[in-house]
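Can't attach files on this board, so I'm pasting raw text. These are the components:
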Amino acid sequence: RKEVEQDPGPFNVPEGATVAFNCTYSNSASQSFFWYRQDCRKEPKLLMSVYSSGNEDGRFTAQLNRASQYISLLIRDSKLSDSATYLCVVTPKIRDTGRRALTFGSGTRLQVQP
Amino acid sequence: DAGVIQSPRHEVTEMGQEVTLRCKPISGHNSLFWYRQTMMRGLELLIYFNNNVPIDDSGMPEDRFSAKMPNASFSTLKIQPSEPRDSAVYFCASYPQGVPTNEQFFGPGTRLTVL
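---
Top answer:
Structure tokens for the assembled complex are below.
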């Protein structure tokens, strides 16, 4: 079983739609959680961190359920420019330098259509 | 403000040849990571360094792969001999350890094709 699992998609949605991505992780000791965005043939870039209380950044909302080891990303009023691959990322304790840093899911591809 | 710099951006080589990928992290960042991305396996961590010291190289596929960080501003990933299955995009990333966001900054990647 992969450490971080995501539905690869693609999710094809019309402009203005609301779309949600889910992610599960297997390591209960994971401490930090993120969503990265990767455009086609580009490098991954941090989209937002995910906090236990949930957090929002404009049209983007991220939530974490530690009990279920589940992370979600909600995009409202989707734009053409949101088309990309969204990578779910988990990491052990920041100070734990003895283990791998950042474990990436395989990503969920989103295509927003006009 | 330059980000992470990688070279070359594209590399095409023949099986059996030695390949060297280069990375210059963001100045002041003391952690450096090498990743490999393929369609089949996604983004995989190969090795990471803290203060130029390799911390975890368990992701390095086999002895054909080696990585060095001789100083804080330069790292190399070498494949010798290269094989077609090594074809992938290789990313280098860096971050200043201890920053609460733990955000990693990725370079543009090297797209390697081994024929």
